[in-house]
């Protein structure tokens, strides 16, 4: 996908060599791959400008004047992937439990079916907790 960069040149949006203009100093042109590091450096060098800029909630590389933040948020090109992630996570309402099948997707009364062979059950505790308990028991036995 090609996009016009900050200087009117058509470049691939994923091109790490694409030049990006620094929001703190308009004379700085930085390669996209170095841009996050440059932002940190310039934020320290230009504290007055940093106070006037707001960070986009969808992409920390987007620094805009605080007065323009609302407009930027409504038009940010990185907003769409975040919204799609939120929508897809809202669709996933079932909880995964090993050995248990959720038979009633999105129903108010979820029925669970145990798929384990007779005599086996799903663990009631997290394995690392079991390990920690065993280690503490061994340590307690050694101190006796």
How would you describe this protein?
The protein has 144 residues and is an alpha+beta fold. The protein is 38% helix and 17% strand. It contains 5 helices and 8 strands. The protein has helices spanning 35-45, 47-52, 69-75, 79-91, 127-143; strands at 2-4, 10-12, 19-21, 29-31, 53-55, 63-65, 100-102, 112-114. A two-stranded antiparallel ribbon has the order 1-2. A two-stranded antiparallel ribbon has the order 3-4. A hairpin with a 7-residue loop joins strand 5 and strand 6 (63-65).
Top keywords for this entry?
17% strand; two-stranded antiparallel sheet; two-stranded antiparallel ribbon; 144 residues; 5 helices
Overall geometry comes to: elongated
Global structural class: alpha+beta
Q: Unreliable segments (pLDDT under 50, ≥5 consecutive)?
A: 104-110
Largest sheet, in brief, is: 2 strands, antiparallel
- Number of helical elements: 5
| Strand proportion | 15-25%
Q: Could you state the order of secondary-structure elements as H and E?
A: EEEEHHEEHHEEH
Q: Strands of the biggest beta sheet: in what spatial order?
A: 1-2
Measured between the Cα atoms of the first and last residue, the distance is 69 Å
């Amino acid at each position: 996908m090609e996009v016009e960069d900050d200087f009117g040149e058509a470049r691939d949006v994923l091109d790490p060599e694409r030049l990006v203009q620094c929001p703190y100093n308009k004379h700085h042109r930085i390669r996209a791959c170095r841009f996050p590091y440059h932002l940190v450096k310039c934020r320290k060098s230009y504290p007055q400008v940093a106070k006037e800029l707001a960070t986009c909630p969808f992409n920390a590389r987007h620094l805009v004047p605080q007065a323009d933040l609302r407009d930027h948020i409504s038009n940010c090109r990185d907003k769409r992937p975040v919204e799609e992630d939120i929508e897809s996570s809202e669709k996933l309402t079932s909880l995964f439990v090993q050995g248990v099948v959720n038979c009633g997707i999105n129903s108010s009364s979820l029925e669970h079916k145990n798929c384990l062979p007779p005599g086996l059950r799903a663990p009631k505790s997290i394995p690392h907790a079991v390990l920690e308990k065993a280690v503490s028991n061994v340590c307690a036995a050694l101190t006796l």
